[in-house]
Amino acid sequence: MLEITQLEVSYGAVQAVKGIDLEVKDGELISLIGNNGAGKTTTLHAISGLLKAKAGSIKFNGQELTVLKPYEILQQGVAQVPEGREVFPELTVFENLEMGAYLTSKDSKLFNDTLEMCYTYFPILPKRKNQLARTLSGGEQQMLVIARALMSQPKLLLLDEPSLGLAPMVVEQVMSIIQEINKKGVAVLLVEQNANLALEISNRGYVMETGKIVLSDDSKNLLDNEEVKTAYLGI
Amino acid sequence: MMDYGAAIGQQLINGVVLGLCYALLAFGLNLIVGILGIMSFAQGEFYMLGGVFTFAFMQYLGLGYVTSILASILIVAFIGALAERFLIKPLAEKDMEITLLGTFAISIILMNLLEYIFGNTPQKIFTPFKTLYNIGPLVINQQRLVIIIAGILLVLLFNFMLKNTKFGISVRATSQNKVAANLVGINVAKTYTLTFGMGCFLAAIAGALMGPLSAVYPSMGQNIGLKGFVVIVLGGMGSLPGAVYGGIILGVIESLGAAFISSEWKDLIGYGAMILILLFKPQGLFGRKGAGV
Ligand SMILES: Nc1ncnc2c1ncn2[C@@H]1O[C@H](COP(=O)(O)OP(=O)(O)O)[C@@H](O)[C@H]1O
Ligand SMILES: [Mg+2]
After folding, report:
1. CATH architecture of B2-280
2. How do residues B122-166 score in pLDDT, each as one tens digit?
3. Residues of chain A that touch chain B, judged by Cβ-Cβ distance less than 8 Å
4. Who is most buried in A1, B52, B112, B123, counting CB within 10 A?
5. d(C-alpha A16, C-alpha A11), whole Å
6. Which of the 8 DSSP states describes residue A132?
7. What is the per-residue pLDDT across B234-259, written as a single tens digit (0 to 9) for each?
8. pTM
9. For residues B10 and B5, what is the distance between their CA atoms, to the nearest angstrom?
């Protein structure tokens, strides 16, 4: 489904991603873990077209994404939940969701069905429907941003540190919903600093260090890997 | 006593008319400031283009006033959109600060180009709206009435569009969070181009409406461009309601000041008000810190 080969991304002279290979197959839940500054966000931004690749290729179902604009990449079925709860603060919860369906809302039956689905995943959202997004709690904002991404009916969902800064109970809730979304057939690429959390729910995992993939394996093997244990799991 | 009251009333009407024109220009400017995040020094020249084109269409093509206005504002919107797409956007991609110089260049180019074509002689636009209405002791001519009605309708229309249509919401979304706008599939570059065009469109309408009350000439945009700046400092940078209230407040104090103090003091009063606001309420009368559009 998603095939990244030898991807390089730079900020001016600073190379943040130094030739990585990464694959997500149909229906998979893949985690990408690594410390702060490893290049995880940069990778996701390159997939979504927010940053230009310097070299390498990103193919999605055979289509090269590196030549497309962000909205064209979304049209291909790749949506991103960026890090840091990027809501539209002065729009209502409903308007945020409406914007999530910006490219697809022409068919109102489809819109309503998708909205229903989001409301089932996140029952708090219909209750907050007419509230401005900036008045939501951190956890609610994260849920809104996930729901907003789902409104585009993605085939592949990229999530950038969805657990960051959330209370442990909320983290668990969000993680279980990500699993549920994946079970419904949406492939997921989950970026996390919280390696334990990500590896617990993913099929396979990639470990990133200073712009390179240093390890990739089934998640259960990574959980048992001594290097991963000491470096990322705090064991 | 009666006469004094009537004189104040008369100046209030004139002030509101002038203020609504400032408001349209500043509403457009605050759209640009709030959504693109850049200050345009060319807003006065787009106002000028609205007036001069309307005059030219009437004079040289023999079109009617209303037809000429419609044709000019559409053309000015298009020129604005082109300027954004081919001048401001490439500059913004290099360095946001340098867009200031870019809009300054647009202002100079437009003014000189128009002066080269039309000369700088002030010209009069002849409006068909000439009837005088008496309201008690007050007199209002039809052109002023048209400005009041058109000004209010346009502000309401743009406000409605921004609050309630999918396009309008996407424009506000873009101003609130550019990364998220890109990620939900909004074409951010196109939104910027359209928004800049809309901002110029509003300035052009103001210029075309004010034309018959003053005169039109290629350098007329210089002073009004500064006024637009005063208004958004008064009302709050990027605040759309601020542009409307700020515009009307400036129009009214200028008119009252010109009538009861001295017409030479007119501009001084406006700039004085701006300096006071900058000193005591730098976010403007209606601006909220960190508020989006
Ligand atoms: N806008 C930027 N300009 C310059 N360097 C950046 C920028 N964003 C990130 N970087 C650098 O790129 C590297 C990777 O960052 P990032 O992808 O955000 O890492 P992660 O998401 O894994 O924490 C870091 O060294 C960071 O300092
Ligand atoms: Mg990151």
Report:
1. Orthogonal Bundle (1.10)
2. 999 999 999 999 988 888 999 999 999 999 999 999 999 999 999
3. 48-50, 69-71, 74-75, 79-80, 82, 86-91, 95, 98-100, 102-103, 105, 145, 148-149, 152
4. B52
5. 7
6. B
7. 899 988 999 999 999 999 989 988 88
8. 0.91
9. 9
